[in-house]
Amino acid sequence: MFKKFFSKKKKETLDNGLQKTKEGVWGKISKAIAGKSKVDDEVLDNLEEAFITSDVGTDTTIEIIKRLEERVARDKYVGSQELRRLLVEEVSDMLAKPEDESLKEDFEITKGDDPYVILVVGVNGVGKTTTIGKLAYQYKAAGNKVVLGAADTFRAAAIEQLTIWGERVGVPVIKQKMGSDPAAVAFDTLQSAKAQKADVVIIDTAGRLHNKVGLMNELTKIKKVMQRVVPGAPQEVLLVLDGSMGQNAFEQARQFVAATEVNALAITKLDGTPKGGVVIGISDQFKIPVKYIGLGEGMEDLQIFHADEFVRSLFGDAI
């Protein structure tokens, strides 16, 4: 049995946000199994095509089909009505899970002497700054004192956008002028956060990939400087990806994973896109847990990601 995490309201937000993905994936899968009384080789071939064309990704699709083949062989007879249950079980099992489950419930954290530090990375345009603002709102709403750091000093607009979000949410933003050393901003942010006895610090970084070596060096410097103030920081290196980009999100993930030690993912803009299957592929291929998903414009539409709930929402009522 899967553990239930969500309130009715959150479940509705998840279901509504994934509606287009669900319609797209299951439209193809329903067609693949139409008229079939059991899951045979033809059904599996059709399922493979359905998953690949739904942005799940080739390698992950092959693994899903392999798992289904093994289950069908072991269970001897599997009707199409049972396919939903098998998919929920197998796909959920494939998704990377966070090592620290204590940080998964309703934006609560284990509070200590030092703040919990989130370093946010990702290209411009994926909803990075918006995600930071919503994270700040959610963590604050959960009773945490939050401080933001504007370490994307490459663009004046990035500093301005983060400042606006800070004012909107009601949390302080530590910043310097455009062109300042990002590591210096990160250092100042953590010093200020410690002085204010903050619980959570969220630091923005420059969203560019034109020079992977430069990006790697910059992020390494930022982390090294932060650890002078908070040993072990950042506890979370969060890569923000745009779920509506489908396979292009895979390439962004590949480049950032090569450039820094990403240990958490936020996948935004899942509402209104049929490409939500990319969540499954990225989590499986990079073995990095998806921690947050964006399901709408509202502050509360950024949710903590629960693999079981996500998969059940995607496959649960389709067949």
List the helices and strands and how they pair.
Blueprint: H1 8-17, H2 19-33, H3 41-52, H4 58-75, H5 80-94, E1 116-121, H6 128-141, E2 146-150, H7 156-169, E3 173-174, H8 182-195, E4 200-204, H9 212-229, E5 236-242, H10 247-259, E6 264-268, H11 278-286, E7 290-294, E8 302-304, H12 307-315
Parallel strand pairs: 1-4, 1-5, 2-3, 2-4, 5-6, 6-7
Antiparallel strand pairs: 7-8
Helix pairs in contact: 2-3, 3-4, 4-5, 4-11, 5-12, 6-7, 8-9, 9-10, 10-11
What does this structure look like?
The protein has 319 residues and is of the alpha/beta class. It has helices at 8-17, 19-33, 41-52, 58-75, 80-94, 128-141, 156-169, 182-195, 212-229, 247-259, 278-286, 307-315; strands at residues 116-121, 146-150, 173-174, 200-204, 236-242, 264-268, 290-294, 302-304. An eight-stranded mixed β-sheet has the order 3-2-4-1-5-6-7-8, sandwiched between helices. α7 (156-169) links the parallel β2 and β3 (173-174). α4 (58-75) packs across α11 (278-286), α9 (212-229) crosses α10 (247-259) and α10 runs parallel beside α11 (278-286). The longest helix has 18 residues, at 58-75. It is elongated. The mean pLDDT is 87.
Number of strands: 8
Mean pLDDT across residues = 87
Q: Percent of residues in beta strands?
A: 5-15%
* SS-derived structural category: alpha/beta
Task: Supply Rg.
Answer: 21 Å
Order of helices and strands: HHHHHEHEHEHEHEHEHEEH
Q: State the helix count.
A: 12
Low-confidence stretches: none
Query: Helical residue percent?
Result: 40-55%
Strand ordering within the main sheet: 3-2-4-1-5-6-7-8
| Cα shape | elongated
Compute the separation of the termini in Å: 19 Å
> How would a textbook summarize the main sheet?
8 strands, mixed
